[in-house]
Amino acid sequence: MPPQLFEETLSINQRVLLNDLRNFNYKKIVWDLDDTLGDTQDVVKEIFDKALKTNYKKRIIDEFDGLSRWAAEDGITSYEIARALEAQLWTSRILLARVLPYPEMQKYSSKAAEKRKVQYIVTSRTGRLEQVTLDWSGLLYPWIPPKNIKVTANKDVRYDADHKTNTIVELDPDIVVDDDPKHIHMALKATTRTRFVWLALGQDLRKLQHERVLILPGGPEQFGLLMSHNLIDTIPPAL
Questions:
Q1: Which end of the chain, N or C, is more open, meaning fewer C-beta atoms within 10 Å of its C-beta?
Q2: Is the Cβ–Cβ distance between 131 and 109 less than 8 Å?
Q3: In 3-state terms, the chain is what percent helix, strand and coil (to 5)?
């Protein structure tokens, strides 16, 4: 859908949020990492497909353990075996170091840094992935200081959604950008003024409807199209 037609579907509050993003009319923004700043799904699906001879590269993982569910439903293997593999992939330091940034998100974040906006990366990743997260962010989003990269200290969990919510409450940002509707819903309930952008690529849009949420069904690519007039002169750092 062309940006102009998309904007006509928005409420007044959602249009205000969109314009604030376009004009960098905010002080503090929080970014999720996996499938928000970086295309983590792509590398996870690549290795999963190779291991189990599946073909899920073009499908969008729209829920926790989505690959495991597909493999079980397709009769490839049991849910338990697929889940063990998927959990290993999502927490692999070697694999996560290979994640590529979404160019649209990288360009916008770089421009926000030029505008002196305060940026944080807040992830639900396990604490075991703190160093690879810092290394990845330092290489591909070097304008966001290490002290603004927030990873749970808990190393005994696969992910920590409560850490993400609590950190958002503590930071009290103007805007949060995330791809996970469950995480956004948790943060919505815990905040009163923070607004959210849901990168809802391939997801059921009925999962989350709220005046403080701008839903982008086209994900990072749509985000880039909506912000494109501000990003023409922005050149991301060389990889």
A1: C
A2: no
A3: 50, 10, 40
> What residues are paired with 31 via a beta bridge?
121, 177
| Distance (Å, whole) CA 184 – CA 198 | 8
217: pLDDT strictly greater than 90: yes
**Among 187, 98, 81, which residue's Cα sits nearest to residue 140?**
98
Q: What is the DSSP string of 107-137?
A: HHHHHHHHTT-EEEEE--B-GGGHHHHHHHH
Taken in order 226, 11, 114, 219, the sign of the CA dihedral is negative
Cα-to-chain-centroid distance, residue 137: 13
Rounded CA gap, 168 and 156, in Å?
A: 21
* CA–CA dist 88, 104 (Å, integer): 28
Full-model pTM: 0.91
User: What pLDDT digit, counting tens, does each position of 147-175 carry?
Assistant: 999 999 988 888 899 999 999 999 999 99
C-alpha span between 172 and 175 (Å, rounded): 9
Per DSSP, the residues of 166-198 read HHHHHH--SEEEES-HHHHHHHHHH-SS-EEEE
The answer to whether the beta carbons of residues 181 and 203 sit under 8 Å apart is: yes
**Higher-confidence position of 158 and 82:** 82
